[in-house]
């Protein structure tokens, strides 16, 4: 990982801070803050491209001579993507309509974590806690040569759902596969504990978890596992007071330790594009061989772990089309229906009886036929 510091002339002050992008493959994160001069700090995963950065940014700031503090966390973006993200950040500062709005994009799957959280909350109520400008990021990635994300891949948003105070915890799947580390896990656990304190004090709260994760972050394995345990303990305690709603949309899905978290939710909403499983297809193939599971067989993967089969077999509660408004309506309905009966994770005898009747081989079609409608 390389850190590059640059300066450029600029005399047009910006009005407000702006944040765009994600530290994902071929992409970057840009944070823009008002300042008296233009300074740029770049943390990049690709070493030796200082002259390219200098030339790319010199061209951009020659056209846009703003005075700003610019922070860039790069995961191998091309000069074109760099210029695009900087332009998006300036559009946000100017209050211009984003490209996504111009295109009327309402696909929940294609939204990033921040957009998803905003879409689920009542219009105008979104307020982010510990956002990117707080720089609460993992201290363990940079020493391993990995560019951090300024929010460590978790968005904590307070607001309202149908006028009732709510907290939405959305995981950014484009950063490190949505994996859970010490800081991102602490943000989730701490938010659930804060919601628990509200519930115990009689203050209404509607907690929502938006999953997009492969599980524990391998670079922070033990710390991630410890955070996962705290998340599970807080969720189980919280659901005794209020429903905890989970959402799995795609593109990463929900696997590893976070699939257990999803299983602990009071109600779980999925799209057909979403996937849910304890182990991901690649992990199963690597450990048990391609004869057990071919991770390249997309039809097979979705027939086993996709949102449709998970809903039919009772591992998820509601199947919703990939539409932001439909997802928001499903979340509102989940809270309006109140707490369900006994928590799914507490129905040990029910699940043991199901497992005892597993067919061989346990295909998605066989499970759907055997378990469809079997929820009691």
From TrEMBL:
InterPro entries documented for this protein: AcCoA_carboxyl_beta (IPR034733), ClpP/crotonase-like_dom_sf (IPR029045), COA_CT_N (IPR011762), Mal_deCO2ase/Cit_lyase_ACP (IPR023439), Malonate_beta (IPR017556), Malonate_deCO2ase_dsu (IPR009662)
Transport recorded as keyword: no
Top-rank lineage group of the source organism: Bacteria
Subcellular location per the Swiss-Prot or TrEMBL entry: Cytoplasm
Main location: cytoplasm
Entry keywords, A to Z: Cytoplasm, Membrane, Phosphoprotein, Transferase, Transmembrane, Transmembrane helix
Domain CoA carboxyltransferase N-terminal residue range list: 74-350
Residue spans crossing the bilayer: 244-265
Name listed for the protein in its UniProt record: Malonate decarboxylase acyl carrier protein
